[in-house]
Design brief:
The chain is of the alpha/beta class. Helices cover 44% and strands 17% of the residues.
Length: 240
């Protein structure tokens, strides 16, 4: 059994949840043609993640709060999340959720699933008196275009050079932060990105897969830190 401290960072939309909650909300409540164009511009790097959220919120004319809440309550989580949390507790692994989505629906889903004890960082969403969606970005970094909530900064702030850092993700906002971690669990577009950039990763479909891989890794006496992740972290320290 290894004696290194492990920090596990997990994306929310499409990772903890079965589908991307934020994207689903705007496709359901916003102007579909505008939403499609905004997401296309984001994935083509024509606009930043922050600008995409601003534009997506503007695509929703007015929202009925009760209808929105009912929609969010239907969003399912990966059932393996509970086993992953217990596994991490049993092995003294700290979980930190990093979302480029909004606290509005994260709080609602975490409360429904009795997961309110999980530490997380995200963007903030308010619903105005005129029933408009108003986004706020308390953790933005102008140098991080792919995530309005700078996940890379959270990873660096919440781990030391001695820690073993792990990342679980699936999407566009996970590409940059994953590079700062020693072990990457990837699916969907993050997996394709790792393959394209020749970044070592573990493919997974559900959290059950992640648990199986973690169980094997923890049998080692010592985990080897990823050299390129260390270089990225040192580069970040220098530029800050």
């Amino acid at each position: 059994m290894i004696d290194q401290k492990i920090k596990l960072f997990i994306d929310f939309d499409g990772t903890i949840t079965r589908e991307d909650v934020g994207e689903s909300i705007f496709r359901n409540f916003g102007d579909r043609s505008k939403v499609d164009k905004i997401i296309e511009d984001l994935l083509s790097d024509r606009i930043s993640a922050k600008q995409s959220w601003i534009d997506l919120c503007a695509s929703v004319d007015k929202v009925d709060v009760n209808t929105l809440n009912e929609f969010i309550y239907k969003m399912e989580v990966d059932p393996g999340m509970y086993k992953l949390i217990q596994f991490c507790r049993d092995h003294d692994i700290q979980i930190i959720v990093l979302s480029d989505g909004f606290d509005y629906y994260i709080d609602m889903i975490f409360e429904r699933e009795n997961l309110t004890g999980l530490k997380y960082f995200s963007n903030h969403l308010e619903i105005s008196s005129q029933n408009k969606l108003v986004p706020e970005f308390p953790f933005e970094d102008p140098n991080s275009r792919n995530t309005a909530n700078c996940k890379k900064n959270h990873i660096i702030t919440n781990s030391s050079d001695e820690d073993i850092t792990m990342y679980i993700g699936d999407g566009n906002s996970d590409k940059d932060p994953a590079l700062y971690c020693d072990f990457i669990f990837a699916k969907r577009s993050l997996l394709k990105y790792c393959e394209k950039e020749r970044v070592s990763y573990f493919p997974y479909k559900t959290f059950d897969d992640v648990i199986d891989i973690l169980a094997v890794l923890l049998k080692k006496k010592k985990l080897k830190k990823r050299h390129q992740a260390g270089l990225k972290r040192r580069e970040a320290y220098i530029t800050e």
